[in-house]
Amino acid sequence: MLLLNIDIGSWGVLYQTRSNAIYFAVGAILGSNPNYLQSINSTRSKILIIISFLGFAIIAFATIKNLQANNFIAFLLAFLGVSSTICLSIFSTRSNRFKFIQQWGIFSLAIFVAHTIASAMARIILQKLLGITEPWIHLLIGTGVGIYLSIALVLLGERLKFPYFFTYGKSFKV
């Protein structure tokens, strides 16, 4: 969201920082309010999932209709997206069906570091060895391999008593 149209030089990072500072400020304000997350956390699960679904549906509609071109609407959609994601996150922590997502969070550093190599390996095998070029297959298998091969690398390190692949000091504790 562009609040001030002031020339701040040729370095694009400054413009990106200026454009996104409002979201940082809103996050800092909400994060400093101890009652904010507590009030969301005390909301019933059905309400959380309805808010999340409706929020993402509104964002999808606005994207299809290209409504995010307006700065104020873009700000509202970003706030709605953050709120919907928080509601979905709190809902998912209450359900045993989503334990695998918690695992992704625990191993997020390893996934971040190793997923590119693992996904590239999957793409090469699919494309060059198996002749598969369907984008949806590459997306599905590449994502799965990127996530789970990274986690397997951490678990292998733990099993070999070498827990330092992705840590400095203490190892992951599952």
Bulk shape: globular
The helix tally amounts to 7
Distance between the termini: 40 Å
Report the C-alpha radius of gyration, rounded: 21 Å
Number of domains: 2
Overall strand count: 0
Helix and strand succession? Answer: HHHHHHH
Oligomer: single chain
Mean pLDDT: 85
Strand % is: under 5%
Helix content: over 70%
Uncertain ranges:
none
Largest sheet: none
Which descriptors apply to this entry?
7 helices, 2 domains, mainly alpha, globular, 174 residues
Any overview of this molecule?
This protein is an all-alpha fold and 174 residues long. It has 2 domains: 12-94, no CATH class; 102-159, no CATH class. The chain is built from 7 helices and no strands. Helix 6 crosses helix 7 (135-159). The two termini are 40 Å apart. The mean pLDDT is 85.
Helices, strands, pairings?
Blueprint: H1 12-31, H2 34-41, H3 45-64, H4 71-94, H5 99-106, H6 108-129, H7 135-159
Helix pairs in contact: 3-4, 6-7
Short description, anyone?
This protein is mainly α and 174 residues long. The protein has helices at residues 12-31, 34-41, 45-64, 71-94, 99-106, 108-129, 135-159.
